[in-house]
Amino acid sequence: MSASNQSCPDPSLFLLTGIPGLESQHVWIAIPICIIYIMALLGNGVVLFVVKQNVTLHEPMYYFLSMLAVIDLVFSTAVVPKMLSIFWLDARAISYESCFLQMFFIYTFAAAESGVLLAMAIDRYVAICNPLRYKAILTNLKIALIGLLSLARAVGIVTPFICFLTSLPYCKSTVIPHSYCEHMAILELAGTDMLVSDKYSVVVATTLVGGDSICIAFSYGMILRSVLRLSSHEARLKAFSTCGSHLCVILLFYVGGLLSMYLHMFDLILPRHTQVLLADLYLVVPPMLNPVVYGLKTKQIRERVFKLFG
Can you give the CATH number for the domain in which 103 is found? Predict the structure, then answer.
């Protein structure tokens, strides 16, 4: 540990302010966030239950969808309970260790979700462009390896950054002007030059998203070419419908995440409370919408959910 860290011991607690400037509205803001969180738990839980209970859904596409549901459950649960305790109970304190643990879960599972979305694009490419070898290519072992590699890649990317953050001296303040332990808000508390860490986070996020997006775009380019060659109009509509739900989830995840990061990074015209509110919504809304989008767009899941609820 550096000398600056020795003269400035790590704080035992951080204080989360919630949404700066809207403290008087916290009670009311928490209501829709709580409803969204409950819907996310129910939606993703139903997807996992339906896939597990129906042997006909034990296929690569639904295994990847189950991975996405698990990621969304962990992702939202790492944030929302603490957020609601701030808004309703004014429980702003969070321990030093819990803060960085929360940050680790948020960014690790966000990066893992990017990997799973890429895997889902490859799954659709194989299913549409090489259907006869679909099950031979995407075996259960390969699906499990893809899931583990997505998680390992995420841990490998996030861990060095978290270790770097824990090594910084937090002498400036212990008050985080945010609803969760957001890394840029944490960096502002450190009495060091943030240029290197800012560049690292932007380069890593942009490279991760850019690399995965290029691969996803290539996959869908090949899919589009194959679909347009189909002679049956009904087959083309079915293929577009299946891929449409995936594209909606991709746009929601990537556009929302990059918008939230760059708004904070470059301190654009939006006031601070709007930036924080947008960041909060990005963490809670996609986990709710993902199972809804797939439930509405995927006929097999939709039918079994209707059957489950009579």
Answer: 1.20.1070.10
